[in-house]
């Protein structure tokens, strides 16, 4: 079956399949050997907008060297949670920590250790992709090699086109490269393969696995069961602002498909 967003997977959900080394690793990127294993924690996190409780008593965690996939229906609170963890929003209550630091009060040094890929890309419209990535790489002490990221994600094929003229999928690739160019220790990827063609999705999944295998904590939000099944070492299912299921894929699914488990968990919560 070809990759397919919200693909109807009927097989039992399996671990994201950690593979030593991976294919064609991005050369020269830092290999992290952390003394702590916790990348992200949220504890009783809350954030409301008027009467809407976007994040309502949310507790979960993600480890370094693991891909954590966060799934949930539209409006479940995924983006709000990610933005709190990225230091873009302040929670009303509870605790958020990234690499042990409160992201709201974080220093520039902390922010350099965290990579962020936003859903809308957040890229400057007039920039050309490769020049932009080279510029960003100079802001970091230990950047990933730009040429490798560019060729791995096929960005060289549209290197001369300004961001405003790029297709949605091309922008996604540049946004992913921008999130990884600083060799982050934790990276947040908001629906990284939404809108990508099947080849590009495979390339992105390989790159995410390699990033994980270098010890980086990767947190991915997704609506794709296939993506979660292929990538995740740890699953967090949220609904109505709180966690309705969390664990290793094999434990959470217990021999059933992720799709079945997801619908059961999120239906119960409604
Ligand atoms: N700035 C805001 N002002 C008012 N309401 C907001 C704001 N941001 C988010 N919300 C509301 O908070 C809830 C959670 O939104 P959020 O974007 O976190 O969901 P999501 O899980 O990321 O959804 P999707 O899968 O559609 O991206 C929604 O009801 C949304 O309308």
Structure description:
With about 270 residues, the chain is of the alpha/beta class. It is built from nine helices and nine strands. It has two domains: about 40-115 and about 185-270, 3-Layer(aba) Sandwich (Rossmann fold), CATH 3.40.50; about 125-185, no CATH class. The protein has helices at about 80-85, 110, 130-135, 145-150, 170-180, 200-215, 225-230, 250-255, 260-270, and strands at about 40-50, 50-65, 65-70, 95-100, 115, 185-190, 215-220, 235-240, 240-245. The strands form two sheets. A six-stranded mixed β-sheet has the order 5-6-7-3-8-9, sandwiched between helices. The protein has a three-stranded antiparallel β-sheet with strand order 2-1-4, covered by helices on one side. Strand 1 (about 40-50) and strand 2 (about 50-65) form a beta hairpin. It is globular. It starts with about 35 loop residues before the first strand and ends with a helix. The chain binds adenosine-5'-triphosphate. Adenosine-5'-triphosphate binds near residues 74, 76, 77 and 79. Its main location: membrane. It is found in: Cell membrane. InterPro entries: AAA+_ATPase, ABC_transporter-like_ATP-bd, ABC_transporter-like_CS, ABC_transporter_ATP-binding, P-loop_NTPase. One of its GO terms (biological process) is response to antibiotic.
């Amino acid at each position: 079956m070809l990759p397919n967003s919200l693909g109807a997977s009927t097989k039992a959900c399996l671990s994201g399949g950690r593979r030593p080394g991976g294919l064609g690793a991005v050369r020269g990127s830092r290999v992290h050997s952390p003394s702590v294993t916790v990348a992200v924690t949220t504890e009783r996190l809350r954030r409301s907008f008027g009467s809407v409780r976007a994040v309502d008593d949310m507790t979960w965690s993600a480890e370094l060297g693991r891909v954590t996939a966060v799934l949930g229906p539209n409006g479940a609170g995924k983006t709000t949670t990610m933005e709190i963890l990225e230091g873009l929003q302040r929670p009303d209550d509870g605790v958020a920590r990234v690499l042990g630091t409160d992201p709201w009060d974080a220093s520039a040094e902390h922010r350099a250790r965290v990579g962020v890929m936003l859903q809308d890309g957040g890229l400057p419209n007039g920039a050309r992709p490769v020049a932009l990535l080279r510029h960003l790489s100079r802001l970091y002490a230990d950047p990933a090699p730009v040429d490798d990221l560019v060729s791995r994600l096929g960005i060289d094929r549209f290197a001369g086109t300004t961001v405003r003229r790029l297709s949605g999928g091309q922008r996604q690739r540049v946004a992913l490269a921008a999130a990884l160019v600083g060799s982050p220790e934790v990276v947040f990827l908001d629906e990284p393969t939404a809108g990508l063609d099947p080849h590009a999705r495979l390339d992105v999944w390989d790159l995410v696995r390699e990033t994980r295998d270098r010890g980086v904590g990767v947190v991915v939000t997704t609506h794709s069961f296939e993506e979660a099944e292929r990538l995740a070492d740890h699953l967090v299912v949220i609904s109505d602002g709180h966690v309705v299921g969390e664990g290793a894929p094999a434990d959470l699914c217990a021999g059933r498909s992720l799709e079945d488990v997801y619908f059961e968990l999120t239906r119960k919560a409604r």
